[in-house]
UniProtKB/TrEMBL annotation:
The gene is rplX. PROSITE patterns: RIBOSOMAL_L24. Signal peptide: none annotated. It comes from [Eubacterium] hominis. InterPro entries: KOW (IPR005824), Rib_uL2_dom2 (IPR014722), Ribosomal_uL24 (IPR003256), Ribosomal_uL24_C (IPR057264), Ribosomal_uL24_CS (IPR005825), Ribosomal_uL24_KOW (IPR041988), Translation_prot_SH3-like_sf (IPR008991). Part of the 50S ribosomal subunit. This is Large ribosomal subunit protein uL24. Belongs to the universal ribosomal protein uL24 family. GO terms for cellular component: ribonucleoprotein complex; ribosome. Keywords: Ribonucleoprotein, Ribosomal protein, RNA-binding, rRNA-binding.
Length: 107
């Protein structure tokens, strides 16, 4: 999976289409991600000792990784991600993620 925690992504399908937000959590085995403020669901909580009133909270639910695309904030566009090997001055080779549209490295 090319999307990592902390990446800025744009939702490309569904009710939240066009939303740009940060990835909070990644589930690589299920190919799902949780994106901040996207796919909000209501969860009913039973009363507990920590929360004696219980109640209803809103939280983000996972969405499939195919429904989001990495967002390049400099180019202001969503882009696919590829990999490239970069060599530094000492000769060390490092594999980095790059945006396919612009060729810029992903921070």
């Amino acid at each position: 999976m090319k999307i990592k925690k902390g990446d800025k992504v744009q939702v490309i399908t569904g009710a939240y289409k066009g939303t740009v937000a940060e990835v909070i959590k990644v589930f690589p085995k299920e190919n799902k991600v949780i994106v901040e403020g996207v796919n909000m669901v209501k969860k009913h909580l039973k009363p507990t000792q920590q929360n004696p009133d219980g109640g209803i909270i809103e939280k983000e639910a996972p969405i499939h990784v195919s429904n989001v695309m990495a967002y390049d904030s400099k180019a202001k566009k969503a882009s696919r991600i590829g990999f490239k090997f970069e060599t530094d001055k000492k000769g060390n080779t490092e594999k980095v993620r790059v945006y396919k549209k612009t060729g810029a490295t992903v921070k």
